[in-house]
Amino acid sequence: STGVGELEIADLALNYGGVVRALNGVNLSLPAGSVVALLGPNGAGKTSLLRAVSGNLRHHRASVKGEIRYAGTSLVGLGPAETVRRGVVQVPEGRRIFASLTVEENLTLGGQALRSQQDFQSAQERVFELFPVLAERRKQPGGLLSGGEQQMLAIGRAMMASPSVLMLDEPSLGLAPKMIATIADIIRSINAMGTSILLIEQNATMALALAHHAYVLGLGRVVLSGATSDPGLMGEVRRLYLGDT
Ligand code: ATP
Question: Which residues form the ABC transporter domain (predicted)?
Answer without folding.
Answer: 7-244
